[in-house]
Amino acid sequence: MESTDRSSQAKAFDEAKIGVKGLVDSGITEIPALFRATPATLASLKSPPPPKHLTIPTVDLKGASVVEKIGEAAEKWGLFHLVNHGIPVEVLERMIQGIRGFHEQEPEAKKRFYSRDHTRDVLYFSNHDLQNSEAASWRDTLGCYTAPEPPRLEDLPAVCGEIMLEYSKEIMSLGERLFELLSEALGLNSHHLKDMDCAKSQYMVGQHYPPCPQPDLTIGINKHTDISFLTVLLQDNVGGLQVFHEQYWIDVTPVPGALVINIGDFLQVKKIMLLLRSCFISCMIWGLILLFYCVQLITNDKFISAEHRVIANGSSEPRTSVAIVFSTFMRAYSRVYGPIKDLLSAENPAKYRDCTLTEFSTIFSSKTLDAPKLHHFKI
Ligand SMILES: O=C(O)CCC(=O)C(=O)O
Ligand SMILES: [Fe+2]
To answer: Where is each Fe2OG dioxygenase domain found (predicted)?
Structure first.
């Protein structure tokens, strides 16, 4: 599609404020050209299936050796299932129903929230990178800044406001616990990451993936890493989330009652640090591999931010997920972050320069979702 065509189609779609759900409700049987994925994305949808031994790790928060297990999952995968996390299944179900309820409303009820202005607390939109991306994705989003200052109940959509506030509090306690465990896994004092304000800010992302008439021609959310320290993801039972690991796209099959945790770009620390300590040559090799992965910031690459995506929803039911990103996301935050000094040594020098999260979000909003961002901060 010509880029002017694309741009005017994107503008018309945005101005209609009906989202992908509105297109589906209008009875379309073919996806509009705007949503046709690029040849590279379509080719990647046909990539070979992963070998059976590659299975997503599960961390049991009440199990034995939880610090080692969480550290290993964060280093090797950057994404894992979390069970026995203490949040009642009934709360998880109400959260999914709330977000689904919002998106399933009539367009008129949603339109007043439609916005891309991140000074607002609550925003409904379709495709964060609609104007920048080469192809739009088959999903709509309800975004909300839930911490440090939660919005007032009366400013939230009536259908999901109460559960949004309740769930975000639950995830705040869980997030604090996860940051403690991750600090310990890094060999730091358990308060270290929390004291760096990693758990301070939250942005809730209520994603909705309506059934797609041509799921092989588009994508639900393009491959990306999250601009967060950590993301806690709740998905319903439809499926479609995949993580890129050892050059394979691997299904993150829904596990009832479990949450998916993924490490974001700010927390990437990667195993290179350990390797660097032990062997200079293998470190050089791993360093090159890591460059490919796009390295993560404050852990100087010990943990990896997991690249993930969601394929377009080919089922007859909508798919709903709720991601809480521990991040200031698009809001200005002037605190300066850089690789944690305690993790650095002569053999493991800083790989990233200090930066503010504002610099990160400025880059994020000027790029497509799938564009790597971390290399902008490499030394
Ligand atoms: O819907 C999902 O499972 C993933 C959503 C996601 O990756 C995001 O909101 O960043
Ligand atoms: Fe994500």
So the answer is: 200-332
